[in-house]
Prior knowledge:
The protein is mainly alpha-helical. It contains nine helices and no strands. It has helices spanning 10-24, 26-50, 56-74, 84-91, 97-134, 149-153, 161-185, 190-215, 224-251. Helix 7 (161-185) packs across helix 8. The longest helix is centred in the middle third of the chain and has 38 residues, at 97-134.
Amino acid sequence: MDDRKVTVKPADNFMLTAKKELIDNKKAIVLGIASCWAICILMGLLMGYNGSGGGIIEVSVFCVMFSITGCIVGSLTFSNMKSKESRINALMLPASTFNKFIVRWIAVVPALFLIMLAGFYIGDLTRIFVNWALDTSAQYRHYNQVTDLWVILSFGYEEEGGIILTNVLLSYFVIQSIYIFGAILWPKLSFIKTLVALWVVQTVFSIILISLGRNFCFSLNFTGESAVWCITIAQIIILLGFYTLTYLRFKKSQVVYKLF
């Protein structure tokens, strides 16, 4: 009889965890992707039919939709921690805490972002095709071009375009990270609770700033470039901070839910 133990490599453990999550959530993933792209196609169809879009307005509409989608999906990151039974299944899964966390993080952050990015171009191409099918006159040739998403998000700046684009993308990931943290902090009705908590924090913070502005005179001497870099660094710190807090909170999760 062979008494040798079978060891599972970390990479194999990660793949097994990812495969299990994919199998368990296959229907939800397929339905979610299909719904996202279907909405993008519908938006592109309406824009092409009405001869609208094809510029900053189209990008703004898609960005608002994708921001809301990112927050909603982020609030569902740890939906398997809502009930006692699902918490037991999640916590008893024979995989490291990091692997269980990183698999869901990959699905909700980079994978979702790429899905929505593809959705934008699907919607934009739909707009072009519908408009081309309805009216092929030469005066609309400029409209029947793929929208340069990155130029619009960088506000058309050439030299500072990269750092501005970085800040725009960081702002999306920072807001989403707050909802991801809320997903493990209070799994039930996470989106609503996080939204209310954000509103309360913003209100209190605004009151404090107004009070300080009335009682103290202070000025910040920042140039445009230094201000942008300060915002960039601040967003990176906040983003990494929320990801770290989320992981630590997930690591301390127990079968019996405790807020603190």
